[in-house]
Structures are given as C-alpha cells and as structure tokens.
C-alpha cells in the first residue's frame, strides 16, 4: 500500500510539473527549422529574433482545424485591439499548399511558418503542442509570459497583452 501511495504522489508531482508555465523555449524548439512561405527552412530561434523588442503572440494552428477556424474572429478582434503586438502563425498542416490556401482564405496578418512534421513532430513536442489552436505570448524581453492558452482563453490572452503595455 505504501508503494502505491508513493507512486501516486510521484505521478501527481510529474503531472503537475509537465504543464508548468515555461518562461523560455527549449534548445530543441529553438534549433528546429520551420518552412517559410518562400520555401526556405528557418530555425525557430532566427524567427524569434525578427520579433526582438516586440510583444509577440504565437498561434499554432492548421487549416483543417475546426477550432482554429472558429477562433479566427476572436483572433482578428485581438489584433484590432492590440495593433502594437506582433503575430506569428505556425501551421501544423500536412502540405504547404493547404497551409498557404488557409492563410489566404482566413486573411491572417502576421508572420507565417509551417512545422515540417506536424502535430506529432519534433517542433510540436518541443513546445508541448497537445491541442490547436494553441497560443503562446512572448514579452518584449523574449520571456514567455503565457505558455499554454487555447481558443477558450481569449480573455486570459487579452488580459496578458494589456498587462504588457
């Protein structure tokens, strides 16, 4: 019985820490390359450098994702209310054609890149993607201030952005 209790405590501790708020991206995430709209491969750390000194909202999404499409009006409202914030979209689409068609169809304003190996790949695992759309907010210093938000968290996302002004 003591062993079972100890195992339960260990499991609970592990479960709580795995979803903890992270303040920086892992080395794996930073070194992973993503596909740019021009067909080139760019390391995630180099993408982030483009936004140095700016508050950044990262949305991990896919054109096939119903919840992502449903959240688009809320995202556009967020962009209208926070024009000083930069937006980066990272797609989990399976093909570049579908990804690019999704950008055009939904008129997504911001930077665009696609993970090379989708939801179960290296990049997705490195940033703990278990659901999309997924939102990450990075402050002007490069620190992650909101690591795990989904489409039902727009109030939390908005509050976080307001606190960073």
Automatic annotation (TrEMBL):
* Domain spans labelled Thioredoxin: 23-165
Q: Name one GO molecular function term.
A: oxidoreductase activity
Instruction: Kindly give the InterPro entries that the UniProt entry links to this protein.
Output: Redoxin (IPR013740), Thioredoxin-like_sf (IPR036249), Thioredoxin_domain (IPR013766), Thioredoxin_ResA/DsbE_sf (IPR050553)
Q: Which GO terms describe its cellular component?
A: cell envelope
Instruction: Give the location in the cell.
Output: Cell envelope
In the UniProt record, the signal sequence range is 1-20
Which CDD domains does the UniProt record give? TlpA_like_family
Q: Which UniProt keywords apply?
A: Cytochrome c-type biogenesis, Disulfide bond, Redox-active center, Signal
One GO biological-process annotation of the entry reads: cytochrome complex assembly
Q: Does the keyword NAD apply?
A: no
Name of the molecule in the record: TlpA family protein disulfide reductase
């Amino acid at each position: 019985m003591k062993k079972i209790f100890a195992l339960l405590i260990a499991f609970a501790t592990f479960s709580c820490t795995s979803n903890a708020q992270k303040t920086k991206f892992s080395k794996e995430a930073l070194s992973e390359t993503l596909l740019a709209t021009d067909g080139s491969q760019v390391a995630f750390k180099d993408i982030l450098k483009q936004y140095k000194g700016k508050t950044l909202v990262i949305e991990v999404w896919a054109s096939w994702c119903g919840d992502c499409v449903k959240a688009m009006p809320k995202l556009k409202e967020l962009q209208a209310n926070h024009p000083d914030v930069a937006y980066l979209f990272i797609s989990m689409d399976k093909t570049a054609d579908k990804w690019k068609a999704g950008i055009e169809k939904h008129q997504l304003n911001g930077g665009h890149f696609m993970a090379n190996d989708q939801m179960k790949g290296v990049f997705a695992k490195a940033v703990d993607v278990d659901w999309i759309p997924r939102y990450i907010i990075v402050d002007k210093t490069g620190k992650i201030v909101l690591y795990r938000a989904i489409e039902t968290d727009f109030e939390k996302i908005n509050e976080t952005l307001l606190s960073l002004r």
